[in-house]
Amino acid sequence: MKNENLISENDNFLICTAAQTAADICSAYIENENTDLIKDEIKRKLSDKLKEKQESDKKLRKLQKTELEVLMELDRVCRKHNLRYYIVGGTLIGAARTGGFIPWDDDIDVSMPREDFDKLIALKDEFSQDFFLQTHKTEKECYFFYAKLRKNGTYFGEDKFEHTGIHKGIFMDIFPLDYISDKRIIQKLSFKSFSLINAFICSKKLTSEFLYKNMSLPFIVTFRTIQCLLPLPLLYGLRSICAKLTKAFSNKRLVASLAGFHGYPKEIAPFELWAEGTDIEFEGKTVRAPKEYKALLTHMFGDYMQLPPVEERVNHTVADENIIFEGVTKENYKPKFRRKRSHRYYGVDYDILPNKE
Q1: Among residues 77, 117, 81, 110, which one has the least CA distance to residue 95?
Q2: Were 174 and a residue from 136, 147, 169, 262 both cysteine, which residue would form a disulfide, CB within 3.0 to 4.6 Å?
Q3: Cα separation, 110 vs 24, whole angstroms
Q4: What does pLDDT average to over the chain?
Q5: What angle do CA 47, 48, 52 make, to 5 degrees?
Q6: Count of the separate structural domains present in the chain
């Protein structure tokens, strides 16, 4: 569709009305100015902004449909091998509200019980050649504790990964669920230990953001010293041990996603809310959700049916030009630049260096 055909009659009416109102206000405060010229300039800018928004919305919708393909590939493999998975987070909220994506959402999240998660990793070759199961076991440079299922031949350029050579295809996140103790002190210790170890790993991989914001100088010096002394293989081992100890101290009643984005205590819930799961409609497809998904969403988000304020309706904020739907090769995943340091200091951006050929 050509740009000039994107704006409907109703859009044009709203633009003209807004432009006339703004022009009248401007002319009331600015003497000897041509109201018609002001109105035409405002109309032009409003039209350009609306076209940009509509083009961006079209690309977001195409991205969502591609991510749905990825989800259905996971669904196929999991159903074939009787593995439990559940859509979670914004994906589950969208399914509960409208049976599809939250309009501004640009990713899909799922969780899996640890047992099923480990089996899925072992079944990496079960996915079709159009997809790649990304873990630290399938890609040397990958350092995630969770997994990503990516579509080959595509590109989703998140800033924090552009200096790496990892696969950057359009993806969905897969988080393992681990049993955790019902004692709060152990729960807090588990999350804090896991987060600290993960912070060291992210720091070494130069992907941390704002870790030092509002931190004291002694903390920064201590953190940097320990980070330099601990090699990556040891940190990976400590992270795995942390997850195993979390399970060892549990009574197998509560589960938690240690790598989840919501942290303690929202990521902790009774396993009975998840159980074997239930079917739910999502974008006209049937996928799996936690058995008591309404109770789980209320635990994590409160009134999840209430829309958040406009300023909170955000996504990964990847530039449109960094989303490519076809024709991408492994060469395109090579680092675009180098980073001199691992963190932003008090809001100052990373030092970006030209990439060495």
Answers
A1: 110
A2: 147
A3: 52
A4: 87
A5: 115
A6: 1
- Selection from 16, 14, 10 nearest residue 40 by Cα: 16
* Residue 37 or residue 7, greater confidence: 37
- Using CA atoms, how far apart are residues 218 and 187, in angstroms rounded to an integer? 27
Task: Tell which residue, 173, 2, 191, 202, has the closest CA to residue 88.
Answer: 173
Tell me what pLDDT residue 309 has.
Answer: 86
Closest alpha carbon to 59 in 322, 328, 330? 322
β-bridge mates for residue 354, sequence order = 337
In three-state secondary structure terms, 14 is: helix
Question: What is the model's pLDDT at position 56?
Answer: 85
Residue 124 structural domain: 3-354
Q: Please give the structure tokens belonging to residue 333.
A: 């995943």
3-state DSSP assignment of residue 357: coil
Band of pLDDT at residue 154, cut at 50, 70 and 90: very high
- What is the rounded distance in angstroms from the CA atom of residue 86 to the CA atom of residue 74? 11
More confident residue, 13 or 327: 327
Contact call for residues 152 and 169 (beta carbons, < 8 A):
yes
- Residue 356's SS3 state is coil
Instruction: Tell me how far apart the alpha carbons of residues 353 and 101 are, in angstroms, rounded to a whole number.
Output: 37
Kindly indicate the confidence band of residue 13, based on its pLDDT and cuts at 50, 70 and 90. low
Burial of 250 (0-12, 13-18, 19+ CB in 10 A): buried
| Concatenated DSSP letters of 34-63 | -HHHHHHHHHHHHHHHHHHHHHHHHHHHHH
